[in-house]
Amino acid sequence: MITLNTCQLKQTYFVSHIHGDVETKKHLQNLGFVKNARVALMNRDNSNGVILIHNSRIALDNTILANIDLSKEMIGNEHFTTLSTIKPGQTALVLGIATGTTTDDHNHALKRRLLDMGVTRGTRIYVRKVAPFGDPMELHVRGYELTLRKNEAEKVEVSVLEND
Q1: In terms of domains, do 121 and 142 share one?
Q2: What is the pTM of this model?
Q3: Sign of the alpha-carbon torsion through 146, 150, 152, 154
Q4: Domain that residue 54 falls in
Q5: 101 in a structural domain
Q6: Strands across the sheet with 144-148, in order?
Q7: What one-character DSSP code corresponds to residue 9?
Q8: Average pLDDT of every residue of the chain
Q9: Which whole number is the average pLDDT over 112-122?
Q10: In-domain check, residue 76
Q11: How far apart are CA 10 and CA 41, in angstroms?
Q12: Range in 3-12, 24-33, 140-149 with the lowest mean pLDDT
């Protein structure tokens, strides 16, 4: 098992599990150390390490770094679905945006629009509400509310996360 205190410098990893007491786990989650968060160890010495997470550098003691298990790939990629199938109250991790194999300008414009709104690979999306017939759906993305039509949500490939 790879932990943050034993991983290679400047290599990208994904958080797979956090060990420790409830208070430590909660504090690390508030710093952004959640399942599938992208992290990299930037520097290390005998007693601490500097971690890059969410475009921020954080210095942590080696005893804390030993409690953070890492994976070289995102957890849950083997069973992905589309955003349109996610139920209210569930959280999903964006794996990509499918535009199809055609060179349709509409699909590329939709992909560009979704990327501009913050729906990018690795983003966590919480489904707040879905209209009675499933169209539209209200999402919480990067600290704001976003409403998407069902046909737009079908283009977003996601992996369902367990709510921590």
Answers
A1: yes
A2: 0.54
A3: positive
A4: 2-71
A5: yes
A6: 81-82, 156-161, 91-97, 124-130, 137-141, 144-148
A7: B
A8: 84
A9: 85
A10: no
A11: 5
A12: 24-33
